[in-house]
């Protein structure tokens, strides 16, 4: 796995797959945390109150270490795992996929279910543009107002992202620094007189 980059999706997508009368609607979403996943799943349950199952899988974190699968009443291993399998086959993280099932009257059996959830997920992921993002480390920088331009030049030059910004007596900037450029950025910040920085807890 590349320690400096990860792959995720840029925008939500939806795809539908039908199997012997049952309808499987897959929704893929970019998601940064479990809270977002919870909200999105709750929204879909409201949107599809008559669906018999709302199965999902997510993988989160730049290292992809946080994941969960849910079969929502389908036979164990027949829904959540196949969904996660498709996410992993594309090497994606910070993503949630929910597959909503409307029962069509015919039992599909475990192999049939695995295939249906896998296919629906695969179709949705084909419609989700993949993007590569830099793994970032969050730092907090404190400095005087008059140094704003100097600091922002470093931030822009190295494609750092501004997480939060607040100003009282000093300017306090939380930035995400690409892991691959960390040494260069900190070296540049050290050159700015009177500036203080520290790793920030996200």
Structure description:
- This protein is α+β, with helices and mostly antiparallel strands.
- It folds into two domains: 5-132, Ribosomal Protein S5, domain 2, CATH 3.30.230; 135-199, 2-Layer Sandwich (Alpha-Beta Plaits).
- It contains five helices and eleven strands; from the N terminus they run βββαββαβαββαββαβ.
- It has a five-stranded antiparallel sheet with strand order 2-3-6-4-5, sandwiched between helices.
- A hairpin with a 3-residue loop joins β9 (161-167) and β10.
- α2 packs parallel to α3.
- The two termini are 23 Å apart.
Briefly, what is this?
This protein has 202 residues and is α+β, with helices and mostly antiparallel strands. The protein has helices spanning 34-47, 80-89, 109-126, 148-157, 182-190; strands spanning 5-9, 13-19, 22-30, 53-60, 66-70, 95-102, 130-134, 136-143, 161-167, 171-178, 196-199.
Characteristic key phrases:
2 domains; 4-stranded antiparallel β-sheet; alpha+beta; 202 residues; single chain; Ribosomal Protein S5, domain 2; Alpha-Beta Plaits
């Amino acid at each position: 796995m590349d320690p400096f980059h990860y792959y995720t999706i840029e925008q939500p997508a939806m795809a539908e797959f039908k199997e012997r009368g049952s309808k499987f609607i897959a929704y893929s979403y970019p998601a940064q945390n479990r809270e977002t996943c919870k909200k999105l799943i709750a929204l879909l349950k409201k949107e599809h109150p008559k669906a018999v199952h709302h199965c999902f899988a997510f993988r989160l974190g730049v290292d992809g270490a946080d994941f969960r699968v849910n079969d929502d009443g389908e036979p164990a291993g027949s829904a959540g795992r196949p969904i996660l399998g498709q996410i992993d086959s594309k090497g994606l993280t910070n993503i949630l996929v929910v597959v909503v099932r409307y029962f069509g009257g015919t039992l599909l059996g475990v192999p049939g279910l695995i295939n249906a959830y896998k296919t629906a997920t695969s179709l949705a992921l084909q419609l989700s543009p993949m993007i590569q993002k830099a793994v970032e480390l969050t730092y907090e920088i404190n400095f005087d107002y008059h140094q704003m331009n100097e600091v922002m030049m470093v931030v822009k030059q190295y494609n750092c992202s501004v997480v939060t910004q607040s100003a009282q007596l000093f300017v306090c900037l939380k930035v995400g620094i690409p892991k691959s450029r960390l040494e260069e950025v900190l070296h540049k910040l050290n050159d700015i007189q009177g500036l203080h920085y520290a790793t920030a807890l996200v």
